[in-house]
Structure formats: C-alpha cells, structure tokens
Design a protein that fits this description.
This protein is mostly helical and about 150 residues long. It has one domain. It has four helices and no strands. It starts with about 25 loop residues before the first helix and ends with a helix.
Amino acid sequence: MASNTATMGNLPRGVGICTTIPDILYVPELIFGGLVWILVACTLVVPANPQGWVMFVSVFCFVVTFIWMVVFACGGHYNKSSWAAADFIYHGIAAFFYLSASVALAKVTLDMKDGTNFQNYQLDISAVVFSYVATLLYFVHTILSAIRWKSF
C-alpha cells in the first residue's frame, strides 16, 4: 500500500478517507450541508431567528466537517483512540444540531405556506429536505464512528 493511503489502526488517512466507512460520508455531508446553507441564504423569511439558527448550524457544520476531513486526509491524527472518540462526539453534536435546525426550519416553512412568495416557499421546502438528509448522514456517521471507536 502507498504511504498516503495507509491507515493508522482503524482510522484512515490520505485517500483512504474516500474508501472507508464512515469516512466516505464526509463528502455527502459537505454537499447536503452546503445546499442547506445556500437555500436558506436565498430566502427571506419574516421570523429570522429560526433561520439564523439554521444558518449557524449549516455554516458551522460545513466548516468543521471540512477541517475534520482535511485533518484526516493529511494524517494529522496520531493518537487513534482519542481521535476516534472525538470523531464520534463531533458527529453526534452535529447530528443533534442538524436535527434541531431541521425541525425549526420545517416549522417556519409550514407557517409560511399561506400568503408568501411561492418561490421562497419552494426554496424552503428544498432546504428542509436537504437538512433532514444532512441530519440522517450525520446520524449514520455518528453510529458508525461509535462502532469504530469501540473497536479500539
């Protein structure tokens, strides 16, 4: 095996993050999280507070997931047990954040069904769907990271 695809225990590094479970979920998490970010940023909703939380969650998780993926790709994780635990904890927090943001976004979208701009309504429906998909991806990543962490 080439040195850039070698793994440290069960934690991948280099190109290995594109071929191992649960690390292959980084890319879909980034895609769906970015879509939520873009779609929510495109709409104007009167109750801005829930939308602000959704924006915080989507931007925070996008940035941290990207940094986390780069750390794993560059092989910056030396103590494998603590990195596996940190991976589990981060993805658990991200799944919880996305779930709370998805529920808030769905509530705001249902409330704006009557008497609002139809285009904004469609964008918000798309954002709700992608937000729940991102929640599912982070939840699955959490479960698989827990299994990997317990295997050490």
